[in-house]
Each structure stands twice: as C-alpha cells, then as structure tokens.
Amino acid sequence: MEQQPSIGSSSPYYDIVIVGAGPVGLMLSTCLSRWGYKIKHIDNRAEPTPTGRADGIQPRSLDLLRNMGLKSAIMAHKPARVYEVAFWDPPQTGHGIVRTGTWASCPSFIDARYPFTTLLHQGLIERVFIADLEKNGVQIKRPWTITDFKSDNSENLEYPVEVQLKHVDGTASETVRAKYLFSGEGARSFVRQQLGIGVSHKDPIAHVWGVMDGVVKTDFPDIKMKCTIHSEHGSIMVIPREDNMVRLYIQIASSTDPDWDPCKTATEGEVQASAKRILEPYSIEWERVEWYSVYPIGQGISDKYTLDHRVFLGGDACHTHSPKAGQGMNTAFLDAQNLAWKIHAVEGGLADRALLTTYEPERKEVAENLLDFDNKYAKLFSQRPPAAAEVQAASEQSPTHAEDNEFIKTFKESCEFTSGYGVAYGPNVLNWSPSHPAQSALLNPKGTKLRTGRLMMNADVTRVVDANVVYLEQQIPLNGSFRIYVFAGKPSVTQQALKDFAFNLGDKRSFFGAYYCDNIASVSYHDNLDLNPHSLFFTICTVFAARRSSIEISRDLPDLLARYRDLVYADDRWDRHIPDAKAAAHAKMGLDEENGGVVVVRPDGYVGCVASLVEGSGTVDALNDYFSAFCTKKLGIT
Ligand SMILES: Cc1cc2nc3c(=O)[nH]c(=O)nc-3n(C[C@H](O)[C@H](O)[C@H](O)COP(=O)(O)OP(=O)(O)OC[C@H]3O[C@@H](n4cnc5c(N)ncnc54)[C@H](O)[C@@H]3O)c2cc1C
C-alpha cells in the first residue's frame, strides 16, 4: 500500500537521493534544488576535493555555467585560460625539443562566446556549486555512504526507492525513501555494482598517468601555454593553472609496454627527473608541489545508465577515459543537466514518465563518441606529431574549405567535440525528425540552418526595453523550461501571424495554455518577469528583424507576448559570420527575415523543433503536435 509522506524537512521522504558530490552530483543537485525539489545529498569524503583532479572547463560548459549564473564565481578564482595549444617535438637534427606549431584551442570557425579552456582545480569548482546549494537549503551530508537500496513500485508507488545510508565511521545510519536515486559516485560506483551493470571496454589499452600540480621555475618559453611535448625521453603534457601553477601529465606505463604492470607507479622525484629530461635543453625546478597523483585509467563505458528509470547513474560512474582532452568533468556536467530537466518535466507534471527513457540513449551516445575521440586523440598525438604546415592550415581554414587531409579533418572534428559544441542528439520525441509523430508541413521550414538535437546558434541582439546588446542564447536562464524563441520577422509583415500565434497560445488546450500556473493572478509585474511567471515549463521571447528604435512593444506585439517585455529584442546587430545579413540572428538560424519562424529549444539549450510562423492556427497546431509526443495532456484537441 502506498505510504503517504509526512510534510517537513525532517521527513525521510525525498524527491531524490544523490550519492557523490563530484561534478555530476553537484550539477544535478544544483539544478533540482533551484527548481524546488527536496534532495538528500551525501558524499563519503569529509570535505570537497582539496586539490588536484579534473581542471578543464570547456567553452560550452562555460556557457552553461554562465546560464546558471555561476560563471563569475568561477572566474573570481582567476583561472588560467588556454587559447592556444603548442606542439613541441624533437628537431630534424640534433637533440632536445623545438616548437613545431601552435593552434587555437577553440578555432574561429567554432562560434564560441568563450573560445578558451578555463583551468581551475576541481575543488574550487565544487565549492562554487556547494555555495549555491547552501543558498537553496541543501547541505551535503559528509562523510556518509550508501550501504543498500531497493527500488520497488509495489511497495510505494510515489516513493519507490528505499535507500540505506550510514556515516562512514559507522556511528549513525538512516533509511530514507525517494522518488529517485542517483549515483554520481565516480568510476567505482557501488550502485552500479549492486545493479549488476557491467562496464564495457572499447579500447583494451590501459594507461598509468602521473599528474603533478605545482609552481615551477623554468626557462621553457611556453610554460603558460597548453603544450604537448614529444621527446626522445618520453612525452609530457603541460597545462597552465590558476595561482601561477602548472600541471604536468606524464604517461608512466601503458598496457602496450612489453613489461606492462598496471600497478607500476613513480615517485614525485622520478616524475620530476623525467620531466627535466623531456624538457631539455630547458631547465625546470619545482618551488612547490601542490598535488601529485598516479592515476591509472582504462577506457570504460557502463552498459546501462539505469534499469528502471528510478535509479540512475551519471558522470564517471558511466564513463572513464584518459584525462588528456580534459573532458571528464564537462561530460559529467552535461549528463546531470540532461537528467535534471527531464526529472523536472516529469515530476512537475509536464511530461510522461517515458521522457526519462531518453536520458540513457542521448548521454550514452555522447560517451561512446567521447571514447572514440579519446582513442583517436591518443593516436594523433602519440603516433605522428603534426607538421607545422598542417597545424597552420588547420587553424586558419574555414570549414567550407575543408580538405581531405585526415589530420586537418580530425583536428576540426576534435575541436568541435572538445569545445563541447559537437554534441548532437539523435532523433527522438524531443529532437524532431521526419519520423516524429508531429507531421505538420510547417515543421522544419525550408532554409532553416538549425539542426534539431544540436545547440541553438549564438546571436547578438539588442534588448528593446533598455537598448542593451545581449547574447540571445543566454537570455533565458537554466530554469528548467522550454525556450520558445519567436523570430518575428518584420513587424509590418507578421502582425497578423503574431496575433494568431498569441491567440492560439492562450487557448487552454495549447501546449502553453494547458500548463499555465494556477497562481497566475498573484504574479506581480516584477516577480520573475524575465523567467517564466505564467508557466513552469515555457519561457517565451520575441526577436524582431527590425531596428530597436522602430519597435514599439505594445503596438507590435499582442498582449500575451508583450507582457514579457524584458524578453523582446531587435535583430539589428552585425555578425562577422554573415556580414551581409540585414537581420543576422534570423539569417544565422536560416529563418526568413520578413516572415520569421518559431524555434523550440529544450531546457538544456538543444533545438527541439523549428516551425514557420504563419497566419491562422497552423504554428501553434504544429507545436501542439510536437509537444503531444511527450506531454501528459492532450493538446489542441477539443
Ligand atoms: C585520482 C583522480 C585523478 C583525476 N585526475 C584527472 C585529471 O587530471 N584530469 C581530468 O580531466 N580528470 C581527472 N580525473 C577524473 C575527473 O575527476 C572526473 O572525470 C570527474 O570528476 C567526474 O565527475 P564525477 O562527479 O562523475 O565523479 P567524481 O569527481 O569522481 O566524484 C564522485 C564523488 O562521489 C563520492 N563517492 C564515491 N563513492 C561514494 C559512496 N559510495 N558514497 C558516497 N560518496 C561516494 C566521491 O568521494 C566523490 O566526491 C581524475 C579522477 C581521479 C579519481
């Protein structure tokens, strides 16, 4: 029989129990706590990561952190920023090393707001999340661990997961019930093992890495750059860090070595001696070593990310790979973000529970691509150092002039991937394709450059109310809602289409009307106006292809759209990627500058579908069909 939870914070009923306060657990917890969910979050360490471990935040992750309002707290630590990567190899003749080229870490053909990698140690990043969680009333319980769990709908339909927790010193224990359990426990996940979920190894090659963070004295000229150095004495990777530090990665052993020993280790002194030999003729001495670790790593991917869509895994619990491209933490963030909004959509009442089945295929495919990339990347650097001319060509060419040169191709694909902009989710109920149940001819209008399952493109626009130039893609924060971008074309052309769009949106059977907030009358003008005051699930903004000074919100927009006046923009900024366009944002998206179009962006920033903006009910009908594929209510039907 279903047990009714008692109300109050001491109740042992939670929306979710999160085990592990590394990047994946913290991101999940932060999102869900902001959206009002009750969370039990534990970690078996007494304190956050004190030093070392992951350190690279990729450009796309920085966008995400900005979208969450956390970027400035990260940047306050004055992290190192890597704009270029330098390659050092043995010279044609003689000994030592010479620089053979440099390339942009995020080249200009990638339309990134922050074209650099941000380097900061994992603990400082964790603390930014922890501070945000505390603001929302979540305290991570430390050092606590999980000892058992079971998930059984028949025992309690609403809170089917029972979790046993205990203090690591065994002095206290607790049993709690939850709607969900999440393992963000890292590579040795207890939950994954208990579920009997296997780990597949794509590339059987394993490595042992030495990682050293410290302050050095050196005459090596690129110590403030990211460098890959090959020498006759071995290879090393140099990564600049905050507080004048530098990280060195040295491969200590590989399963391809004739005397391979997975337990092979090296002392701090041995690694330093090896680094000194590799860097010759330059000198290097350590003033201070902050962290040193020997880090054995094999590629692995969890066979399943969930068995019952109640107990989920993410981050390193699902995928492990080499640290070379700095992807671990970034992939962990995006796993959590993907799951967070889906749990919100289901628990908030927008979406059918089946939506949760999209988490594993979407994120597992990314992990599989990551492991493939990790293999390729390792080979690219360990087998054939690129020639300077190739490096130069790769950094300068635009993708339209891409040649068949394998190295250039791999480099470009890798940059897109490593920057985080290469993620492409396949067709499903969320990412429209011709096989989607929504079959309106208005979907996917001719000319659109937006690809469903990929991030919406960046665009600069001018906010109408205050003439501020802003990043359109950042205007709606990560608030768990779908982002409805109405590209409204020319006001004189789309006036009727906008009226019809607003009229049909206002219908109780539209995707928007069906999920109106009950307390709509109590929303004050200033309350959450830039968020989603009328709906937990949809935030709407409008972009006119017109000069800002020519736009009059109350004249050009019907009431339903005009009330989000802080989210009305003029598409009047020049864009270097399409210098001849009159309305660059419309043109970038491939939408008609006169007639516009409507873009539905998922809460995590990926395009769900694109529809033409037409007079009559067609546009809203098409979107109703799209949302009907996963929403709980029948939409658009009397
Ligand atoms: C020693 C080491 C060195 C690394 N170095 C690098 C590096 O140089 N570069 C790089 O890119 N990546 C590195 N990584 C990987 C990187 O840290 C991860 O990819 C990233 O942190 C993934 O985040 P996560 O949240 O999934 O897991 P983690 O960061 O591993 O977090 C897991 C958390 O769960 C906690 N936990 C585990 N089991 C339990 C349990 N049963 N109960 C309660 N809590 C539990 C752990 O204490 C930890 O806080 C390193 C990892 C390790 C272990």
From TrEMBL:
<comment type="pathway">
    <text>Secondary metabolite biosynthesis.</text>
</comment>
<dbReference type="InterPro" id="IPR038220">
    <property type="entry name" value="PHOX_C_sf"/>
</dbReference>
<dbReference type="Pfam" id="PF01494">
    <property type="entry name" value="FAD_binding_3"/>
</dbReference>
<keyword id="KW-0560">Oxidoreductase</keyword>
<dbReference type="GO" id="GO:0016709">
    <property type="term" value="F:oxidoreductase activity, acting on paired donors, with incorporation or reduction of molecular oxygen, NAD(P)H as one donor, and incorporation of one atom of oxygen"/>
</dbReference>
<keyword id="KW-0274">FAD</keyword>
<dbReference type="InterPro" id="IPR012941">
    <property type="entry name" value="Phe_hydrox_C_dim_dom"/>
</dbReference>
<comment type="similarity">
    <text>Belongs to the PheA/TfdB FAD monooxygenase family.</text>
</comment>
<protein>
    <submittedName>
        <fullName>FAD binding domain-domain-containing protein</fullName>
    </submittedName>
</protein>
<dbReference type="InterPro" id="IPR036188">
    <property type="entry name" value="FAD/NAD-bd_sf"/>
</dbReference>
<dbReference type="InterPro" id="IPR036249">
    <property type="entry name" value="Thioredoxin-like_sf"/>
</dbReference>
<feature type="domain" description="Phenol hydroxylase-like C-terminal dimerisation">
    <location>
        <begin position="423"/>
        <end position="634"/>
    </location>
</feature>
<dbReference type="InterPro" id="IPR002938">
    <property type="entry name" value="FAD-bd"/>
</dbReference>
<feature type="domain" description="FAD-binding">
    <location>
        <begin position="14"/>
        <end position="373"/>
    </location>
</feature>
<dbReference type="GO" id="GO:0071949">
    <property type="term" value="F:FAD binding"/>
</dbReference>
<keyword id="KW-0285">Flavoprotein</keyword>
<dbReference type="Pfam" id="PF07976">
    <property type="entry name" value="Phe_hydrox_dim"/>
</dbReference>
<dbReference type="InterPro" id="IPR050641">
    <property type="entry name" value="RIFMO-like"/>
</dbReference>
